[in-house]
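Hi R.,

Here's the chain you asked about this morning:
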Amino acid sequence: MNRVVITGAGTINALGHNVADTLDAMREGRCGIGPLDIRDVDRLGVKIGGQVSDYDEKSHFNRQQVSLYDRFTQFTLLAAKEAIGQSGLTFNGDLSLRSGVVLGTAGGGVNTWDENYRTVYEEGKNRVHPFVVPKLMNNAAASHVSMEFNLKGPSFTVATACASSNHAMGQAFNMIRSGMCTAMVTGGSESMLCFGGVKAWEGLRVMSKDACRPFSANRNGMVQGEGAGVFVFEDYDHAKSRGAEILAEVIGFSMTSDASDIVMPSKQGAARAIAGALADARIDPSAVAYVNAHGTGTAANDKTECAAVADVFGAHADQLMMSSTKSMHGHLIGGTGAVELLACVMALRDGVIAPTIGYEEPDPECAMDVVPNEAREAKVDVAISNAFAFGGLNAVLALKAI
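And here is the predicted structure, written out as tokens:
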């Protein structure tokens, strides 16, 4: 099997419009969650989110592109440009044919849906823009990335709710490891912070109205975010031969289904995914130093995840550092795993563990070292990133320093 490495990373999210600014915010434990600036916010019960601030689509895209690109696609293209630029790859000839795109999103063009429902139902118009369908479809971002960067290999979108990005990156990993592809652009994006997107999530009664406090006893729900995280995964030998800078190595992936409940997580399903990633990577649990938690800030998710980690790691669980960066950038739903993978890369490369901010009260059901409130310096050789989604769909990635 081929080794798979990361040679490029890009992002735009509530913490920053690029990787450097995002990692600086994570090191500082800065919160990107604040009051929402969206239409009809006064009609919402939840008025906060991890919104991308100081963003003007017209400064990045021309008029024709704006008519084609939903906000989630715009974010993806910007993150992909940064990631591919860092990788130094130019996709032409055989490399173009052997490289593709796998991206995750849960909602796709939610902003486009929201805008056009208003046009038809509220304003009473009988026509919508002819590009509405290609703008809102879930594969829009993947398709535009493939066209923009001449990626002619496998290109598709994965939609598994909050695990979408991890599932997408896992597929990219497997395609390179198997020899099917040489490089893949992968990750995920989401932009649900519009009236309809937030109103729908309000109905679930899992949203906090004030802050995201993963693992803290007084946590009261999740907070939505938006943005994108995109990586270049590449065959190790190919990267090495061209002298590429390697950010980290992807060494394992696992996915499981709870097959039990559409919204309530299962400890067994999560534990099997974690154990499966370690087995796929052929490493002992004791080798793991850092866990990037799914850590949504809901009562059920946090305690279930802690129980699953304790089951898999046993006594070594007491030695793990486990943090949730959702406390800073919010829950990007289908894009969240990709932004969170940046925290794993930072831990492996820089020896800095992103904190769980907003932590106020210990919870005996979450008795882990959650790196509360302040970043920590520590040597990390192996890290894992958890994603557990509605529908009982779990996806875990394992990475190591190189």
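One quick note: The first strand starts at residue 4 and ends at 13.

Cheers,
M.
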